[in-house]
């Protein structure tokens, strides 16, 4: 088996919020005991509805959020509780691409300053060398070196995301966490960005954690897919296993919701009732049981474990 570049063990992250002005504080567990492993050079997709905890998991893995419990390993070394000085050297090798490219770019800075900033933080290169690196990165992502002196607002959304990708590459990282990198873009532009990410992965030897609510986009990018629901990892397997033989009812529902041009093939669509619960109102037993079409009393009494249902395929369902 390939060496794991990123691993989490029983990772949890909660946020507390007050219920009303004078109400008591309520704990919202956005990430609940998630264990996963990302191998060197692979793309692991993470899919689920908006609000299921995917982005929080990504930010916690990068230690932008401090975890409440569990462990994080990067390159075989535990980084769960390392200090800021140690974390700075680790962050040079792990970067993030954000969902909203314009919000992720400082509109007051030129593109040259934006691309030079990570190099300055890590004391890499002279000003001339940083400018050269910035020009090379822009050209590699499909823009021009002449764009260095322009500002983010002068670019389209797709071009802004290309700049965000160039910035993520500036330090030559080993890992990139891509958090909904195409969800805010036009469909025609999405394909260009996805193909660019795949080309860059081959060229730079990158490992991706690709986060999305769109299972079709995730399948295009990923060799393995994990499915999250209400902070829990409910299924994980190879792309082929998830697409052809999903074992969890939630995964089956996500797949049946993919648009199908042939209306005669929509007969087996799985409908799930209700909406995603609040983290503070997590149901007893299985987290999905209130919306599940096959749940019974046992699902309310006993929380299913994420267990192996086939080789390299796990699901958290009593009926998997």
What does this protein structure show overall?
- The longest helix is centred in the middle third of the chain and has 18 residues.
- The chain is α/β, with parallel strands linked by helices and 320 residues long.
- Helix content is 32%, strand content 24%.
- The model has no long low-confidence stretch (mean pLDDT 91).
- The chain is globular, with a radius of gyration of 21 Å.
- Strands 6-7-8-3-9-10-12-11 form an eight-stranded mixed β-sheet, with helices on both faces. The chain has a four-stranded antiparallel β-sheet with strand order 2-1-4-5.
- β1 and β2 form a beta hairpin.
- α5 crosses α6.
- End-to-end separation in angstroms reads 25 Å
How many separate helices? 11
- Order of H and E elements: EEEHEEHEHHHHEHEHEEHHHEE
Beta content comes to 15-25%
Form type: globular
What is the typical, i.e. mean, pLDDT? Answer: 91
How would you characterize the largest beta sheet?
8 strands, mixed
Share of helix among residues?
Answer: 25-40%
Rounded Rg: 21 Å
Category by helix and strand content: alpha/beta
Low-pLDDT segments, ≥5 res:
none
Number of strands: 12
Widest sheet: strand ordering? 6-7-8-3-9-10-12-11
């Amino acid at each position: 088996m390939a060496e794991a570049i990123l691993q989490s063990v029983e990772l949890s992250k909660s946020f507390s919020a007050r219920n009303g002005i004078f109400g008591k504080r309520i704990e919202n567990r956005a990430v609940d005991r998630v264990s996963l492993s990302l191998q060197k050079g692979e793309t692991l997709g993470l899919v689920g509805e908006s609000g299921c905890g995917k982005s929080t998991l990504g930010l916690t893995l990068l230690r932008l959020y401090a975890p409440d419990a569990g462990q994080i390993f990067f390159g075989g070394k535990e980084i769960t509780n390392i200090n800021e000085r140690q974390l700075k050297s680790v962050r040079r090798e792990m970067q993030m691409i954000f969902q909203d490219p314009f919000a992720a770019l400082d509109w007051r800075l030129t593109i040259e300053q934006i691309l030079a900033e990570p190099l300055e933080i890590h004391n890499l290169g002279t000003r001339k060398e940083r400018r050269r690196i910035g020009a090379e990165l822009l050209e590699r992502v499909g823009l021009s070196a002449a764009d260095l002196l322009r500002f983010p607002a002068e670019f389209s959304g797709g071009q802004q995301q290309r700049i965000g990708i160039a910035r993520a590459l500036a330090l030559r990282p080993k890992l990139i966490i891509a958090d909904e990198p195409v969800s805010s873009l036009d469909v025609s532009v999405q394909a260009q960005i996805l193909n660019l990410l795949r080309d860059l992965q081959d060229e730079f030897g990158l490992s991706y954690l690709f986060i999305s609510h769109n299972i079709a986009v995730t399948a295009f990018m990923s060799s393995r897919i994990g499915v999250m629901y209400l902070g829990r990892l409910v299924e994980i397997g190879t792309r082929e296993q998830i697409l052809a033989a999903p074992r969890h009812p939630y995964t089956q529902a996500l797949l049946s919701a993919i648009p199908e041009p042939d209306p005669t093939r929509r007969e087996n669509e799985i409908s799930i009732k209700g909406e995603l619960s609040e983290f503070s109102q997590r149901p007893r037993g299985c987290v999905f049981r209130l919306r599940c079409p096959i749940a019974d009393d046992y699902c309310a009494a006993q929380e299913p474990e994420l267990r192996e249902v086939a080789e390299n395929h796990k699901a958290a369902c009593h009926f998997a």
